[in-house]
Amino acid sequence: MLEGKVALVTGASQGLGRALALAYAQAGARLAINARREESIRPVAEEIARAGAQVLAVAADVSRSEDVGRFVGEAVERFGRIDILVNNAGLLGPRVPIVEYPEEEWRRVIDVNLTGAFLVSKAAIPHMPPGSSIINVVSGVSVEGRPRWGAYSVSKFGLEGLTQILAAELKDRGIRVNAVDPGGMRTKMRAAAYPEEDPMSRIPPEENVGVFLHLSSEESREVTGQRFKAQEFGR
Q1: String of b and e for 76-109 (b: at least 16 CB within 10 Å)?
Q2: Farthest CA pair distance, the chain
Q3: 152 domain residue, yes or no
Q4: Secondary structure (3-state) at 110
Q5: 187-221 in b/e burial notation, b at 16+ Cβ within 10 A?
Q6: For residue 98, what is the domain's CATH number?
């Protein structure tokens, strides 16, 4: 499905990012993946390599422009281009009311979730040929503000806007940009957000990759500026 394509996935050490990296590898893509720490991303790179795919793993903080430049630069040097970009890296932040929200945590969440997507997109786009795809991972709280979701919700609202702006700006270049709300999954972030919830009541991220593969393939070549709910895709 994605034979020979180059996919760059941020925040790929666990959860949805890891599941996507492995799914892309199984679909024939070459991978550039990152996490903030080398010891976190190395095991995923080893899994991908065992699956027979080419992989570049880089320890990089997407909120730091110098790290992003190094990550994207190494990916382009290794693979020559970027066909698929998934802005997945994200932090939950504290679940407290706005009046109690620590300023330092607010900035950290916004920097990773929103500024990170901006920095990675800005660095990657010059290396993306016509037919490429950018997918931004959004959330159910990026279309409806809810109590105690703070900077996470605000950052995802911003990412919805960034998706629409990039889709309009890049349409004439043949680069499509879409947003995906993955819904609740059996991940560490979900468990932190809903500690009272039975994690087994949610699907594992490995079962939630279909819409991402679709949006990365030629099947969606004309689709841009849209928002998808992953768990409703194909129903």
Answers
A1: beebeebbbbbbbbbbbbbeeeeeebeeeebeeb
A2: 50
A3: yes
A4: helix
A5: beebeebeeeeeeeebeebeebbebbbbbbeeebe
A6: 3.40.50.720
Domain holding 186, by residue range, is: 6-232
- Cα angle, residue 35 at apex, residues 193 and 218 outer, rounded to 5°: 90
Report residue 181's pLDDT band, with 50, 70 and 90 as the boundaries. Answer: very high
- Enter the tokens of residue 53: 């795919």
> For residue 74, what are its two tokens?
């190494």
Q: Is 152 a catalytic residue?
A: yes
**This prediction's pTM:** 0.97
Rounded CA separation 65/44 (Å): 24
* pLDDT score of 234: 78
The domain tally of the chain equals 1
Question: Per-residue pLDDT tens for 97-127?
Answer: 999 999 999 999 999 999 999 999 999 999 9
Is 183 inside any structural domain? yes
In a domain, 1, yes or no: no
